[in-house]
């Protein structure tokens, strides 16, 4: 998978910018707040229109402008594709592939895929369950468009149901529709749980190999998927998971009304991660935590490769300076199999080993560097 050309207009701090990218590595260097992460974010959006950091879609549009555009020429599955995204301040995002408008943004993930590794990911292990759910969701949205659709529906239903529970005194008539919300949440919830369970199993296999290789001392990384306790086997059929969820929801009906919250469902899921048998969140050292974060991200890359036969584009946002030399070495070696776009403040240290095209990012403009 290869991003050959990228064009941005009125996107974040880019007014109008085109960039030709080489097949291997590209290094984007620049001082703080010049547009390095913005550029990686625009590449990531080409995988299906989701940003990992924009609170609102309108944030992606340059201040004072009505809409942003991202265009790209990519090579994927043995063919060239021209991708276009139009992001208005408000309203629906439009996307087109080879000039043909697409109904769903999820279609883009069938063509273009990336893995992003940024300094925040180094805390993936240490943070609460929400960070690991975000990781699972982002990975699965690219891998399976059906997952993205189910997740969007589930999230909408969860918001509505939470509001009904929260405002039950003011709007008691809404309580009549609560069972319908629970039913639909369980239907979509069953889809999410099953996908997450299979993904977590693959992730565990791949990440364990990477942890062992990078740690240099045979560290054992284990990952287990944790979901609603009533789900006896998260890899069972959707229908079976739905039935377990429904029974569980029934037994929590009263408690949900009393606590005015949605108490149970895959919105509480987590990945339990252990290193050498001890919970990584509480016991892993800094180095073990970083290695495990690296292992998760590179496992995501391997899974995407297995799925479509080619490596996704790797986006490394300012992460190298945060890693020690052994981990840097691993990362640089691994990325040589595919295209990688690296951002950094200064091109130094191990980055020099990377045979790469250099660019300089300054005030929302990119020019060849040295
Ligand atoms: P750092 O090295 O600090 O991570 P960076 O080069 O990655 O810096 P970016 O996160 O890409 O920096 O952001 C660059 C600038 O883009 C920031 O100054 C921010 O104010 C600006 N910016 C963000 N959103 C918009 C927008 N919608 N319109 C215009 N400018 C924006
Ligand atoms: Mg940045």
For this entry, give a set of tags:
single chain, 370 residues, six-stranded mixed beta sheet, 8 helices, 15 strands, 24% strand, globular, binds adenosine-5'-triphosphate, binds magnesium ion
Give the % helix.
25-40%
Overall mean pLDDT stands at 93
Q: Are any ligands bound, and if so which?
A: adenosine-5'-triphosphate, magnesium ion
Q: In terms of per-residue confidence, which ranges show pLDDT below 50 for 5 or more consecutive residues? A: none
The number of strands is 15
Order of helices and strands: EEEHEEEEEHHHEHEEHHEHEEE
Approximately how much beta-strand content do the residues carry? 15-25%
* Spatial strand arrangement across the major sheet: 2-1-4-5-6-7
Largest sheet: 6 strands, antiparallel
**Morphology:** globular
Please give the alpha-carbon distance between the first and last residues.
Answer: 26 Å
Computed Rg? 22 Å
Structural class: alpha/beta
Number of H- or I-type helical stretches: 8
Task: Explain what the structure shows.
The protein is an alpha/beta fold and 370 residues long. Helices cover 39% and strands 24% of the residues. The chain has a 6-stranded antiparallel beta sheet with strand order 2-1-4-5-6-7, with helices on one face. The chain has a 6-stranded mixed beta sheet with strand order 8-12-13-3-14-15, sandwiched between helices. It has a 3-stranded antiparallel beta sheet with strand order 9-10-11. α3 (145-166) packs across α4 (178-215) and α4 (178-215) crosses α7. The longest helix has 38 residues, at 178-215. The two termini are 26 Å apart. 41% of the residues are buried. The mean pLDDT is 93. Bound molecules: adenosine-5'-triphosphate and magnesium ion (MG). The site of magnesium ion has 4 residues, from α1.
